[in-house]
Amino acid sequence: MSTSAAPDAEAVDDFRREVRAWLAANFPPSLKGHPALLSGHDDLHGPPEDHARWKAAVAGKGWGVPTWPVEYGGAGLSEEQADVIAGEMERIGAFQPIMSMGLMMLGPTLLEFGNEEQKRRHLPPIARSETQWCQGFSEPGAGSDLASLRLRCEDRGDHWLLNGQKIWTSYAHHSDWCFLLARTDTSVKHRGISFLLVDMKTPGIEVRPIELINGISHFCEVFFSDVRVPKENLVGEVNGGWAIGKRLLQHERTGLSRLRGAKAHVLDLVPIARRYQETDADARLVDGDLRGRLAEHLMTDHAYRLTLERRRAETEAGAKPTTPVSTLKNIGAAMGQQRGELAVELIGLNSLGWAGDGYSAEELELTSQWLHSKCYSIYGGSHEIQNNITARHELGLPSD
Amino acid sequence: MTLALTEEQTMIRDAAAGWAAERAPTTALRALRKDALAATGHDPALYAEMAEMGWTGVTIPEAEGGFGMGFAAAGLIAEQLGRTLVGSPLIGSAVVAGSILVMAGSAEQKAAWLPRIIAGDAVVALALDEGPRHDPARVALDARREGSDWALDGVKRPVFDGTAADAFIVVARTRGGLSLFLCPADAPGVSRAALRQIDSRGAAIVTFAGCRLGAGALIGAEGDAATVLDRALDRGRAVLAAEMLGSAQAAFDATIDYLRTRVQFDKPIGAFQALQHRAADLLAELELTRSAVRAALAAIDAGDADEARLASLAKALAGRTLRKVAQEMVQMHGGIGMTDEHDAGLYLKRAQAADMTWGNAAFHRDRYARLSGF
């Protein structure tokens, strides 16, 4: 994606100084230490006007998507320069204010498969975090076997006509647009799928949030009844959508595994352990069994973050990363789930709260997070699907 | 700190890989079980070749007569040697004993032993453990002053590379705390008996009874050894973790090959999802271990404050992973994996021995927790 050549060490130092100066002038101190954003729908803490100012400043520089070309809202920087920006933000307790599913998944896909008109229309608003996108892939009958999807897409001459249903569409009720896979040929499976961009305000679309086990609904059902989509909203070729969708899922897996990595900075289990569990004079947890399991988790999580770092270093060095994305996704999900399990164990009986004043907001949040973490190994390709991919594509084991 | 390999590192790795495959395949390990080599616990001819290629001087600074290529490079060599389970005193002598001498040795001690360690002419072994539990802080072997001399009494077991050692670095308890002594293996009052270990390497019981050493035997200041010992052990642990990563990778590769070729119910057993998913889980363990090993070695090279915690992370993960992979290697090979003729058992036995060396996974988990403040 980068358009500029890899800069030498001196140029990197110059750039770092420039970034530092800019951050010192533009990052609102009131937002210092704000947790990393995981999607475009996070709860924001601190003065809303400061959030707006910070987002506008970063968008103005194109630093939300530093490696995208300037004409599509990026800054045309190298991966190394993007790392400098991220590193400098982390150093001063700042965070990336521009984060969304559109940015993580659709952006890279459109850069590769979209036509010029589509890129110019859709990428800059994503880069400025002005439009929110949702992902219309799964259907009631098409989960792990995604290619069996049935959302009907008919060619009606001057438009496409959509009829059918999507499910598990994250944040569909807060989204402006949807990228989706639809069936344009019923006589074949993978080669009868097309990739479309759909305005969520189009008549005939109905969104129903699904309440999950933690009482929260970011997942939705989306119903399409005679929804008319302009012809120019097809990405790539008719019936060529599967390859595009698969590439997008790769971006999703990488993005998801990075998110879980980022989350480790948000929820630190050790201070929770100190507050809720007995410690001895040397600050050790008295419960030796719990201490051992906490250490085991933190070590694996540490190695996971080192793996993300190594993968980035290998990519930058132009080498093929040794760790497959499918493996990374499973480790990331397992880490998030272990963290959730340990968090509720650490706070013990105080993790039993559902609502009300009898439990602190933090306790309720930890319990909600623990429940929510169960979906880490289901969405974005389940644990089992990822292991199939690893076994067949990375290890070369035969298909059944 | 970068975790990707440089071009120079790739060359070092490839040279070691070629040598191990050609000169020291697992048949070389099997040869150690024969009487002729069982007495030393390694093949001196192969060790001489390793020294000739400079591997015994990789972690010793140029100012001390070594090649100063650093620990990341040493790890890459060890990783390749681990693939074929090469048994040698390389890590114990050149990395651990060598590091102690570099960090705390007197000019005389360095002059007497470092050139010989680097040339591969001498093996110096760390005499540390005293019983079933690796616990440097509780070393009991007694050393006391007698005039200007030191008198050592006690038993060390197992002393890794103890059968081949020309000298020992003995960890002893003195009035002031832990102290280190450099003791020639043929000093009066020192005796040793070979231990026949499951991994065929040359460990020994070393007994110190009325052993008297001159004042010049003390390494560093009296009672001040804990820090030096810890740092040298961490260097050894990180390089050993790299060796274990190589062993685990080779065991994994052999197992995947077997899954592709062994046919039952008219298809390769690797087509069964139950086995595919276990193989995929092992790959994840290997990748995590690789990252931890690289990070620990890079931290030592960079003098990073977090090197102790990273060394424990690497050693613990390597122990966990190698044991798991070796166990699955036996299981997935079925009956043939239980036979002495097949290599699976060699990996399983080495996994156990390597995990137990300088602290097993549980030891390092406890240490990691302590260093993380809980």
Outline the structure in words.
The complex is a heterodimer of chains A (400) and B (374). Helix content of chain A is 45%, strand content 14%. Chain A has 400 residues and is an alpha+beta fold. In chain A, helix 7 (269-276) packs parallel to helix 9 (325-347). Chain B is α+β, with helices and mostly antiparallel strands and 374 residues long. Chain B has 3 domains: 7-91 and 100-120, Butyryl-Coa Dehydrogenase, subunit A, domain 1; 125-223, Butyryl-CoA Dehydrogenase, subunit A, domain 2; 226-371, Butyryl-CoA Dehydrogenase, subunit A, domain 3 (Up-down Bundle). Chain B has helices spanning 7-23, 26-31, 35-38, 44-52, 71-83, 90-104, 107-119, 225-261, 273-302, 307-333, 344-356, 361-371, and strands at 124-127, 142-146, 149-159, 167-174, 177-184, 190-196, 202-213, 218-219, 263-264, 267-268. A 4-stranded mixed β-sheet of chain B has the order 1-4-5-8. In chain B, helix 8 (225-261) runs antiparallel to helix 9. Chain B is globular. The A-B interface holds A 270, 273-274, 279, 282-285, 291-292, 294-296, 298-300, 302-304, 306-307, 309-310, 313-314, 316-317, 319, 322-324, 326-327, 330-331, 384, 386-388, 390-392, 394-400 and B 2-5, 256, 259-260, 267-268, 270-273, 275-277, 279-281, 283-284, 287-292, 294-295, 313, 316-317, 362, 365-366, 368-370, 372-374.
Q: What's this model, at a glance?
A:
Chain A has 400 residues and is of the alpha+beta class.
How does the SSE layout of this entry go?
The complex is a heterodimer of chains A (about 400) and B (about 375).
Chain A: H1 9-26, H2 48-61, H3 79-91, H4 101-113, H5 116-127, E1 133-136, E2 152-155, E3 159-170, E4 177-183, E5 193-199, E6 205-210, E7 219-230, E8 234-235, H6 241-266, H7 269-276, H8 288-316, H9 325-347, H10 361-372, H11 383-394
Parallel strand pairs in A: 1-4
Antiparallel strand pairs in A: 2-3, 3-7, 4-5, 5-8, 6-7
Helix pairs in contact in A: 1-3, 4-5, 4-6, 6-8, 6-9, 7-9, 8-9, 9-10, 9-11
Chain B: H1 7-23, H2 26-31, H3 35-38, H4 44-52, H5 71-83, H6 90-104, H7 107-119, E1 124-127, E2 142-146, E3 149-159, E4 167-174, E5 177-184, E6 190-196, E7 202-213, E8 218-219, H8 225-261, E9 263-264, E10 267-268, H9 273-302, H10 307-333, H11 344-356, H12 361-371
Parallel strand pairs in B: 1-4
Antiparallel strand pairs in B: 2-3, 3-7, 4-5, 5-8, 6-7, 9-10
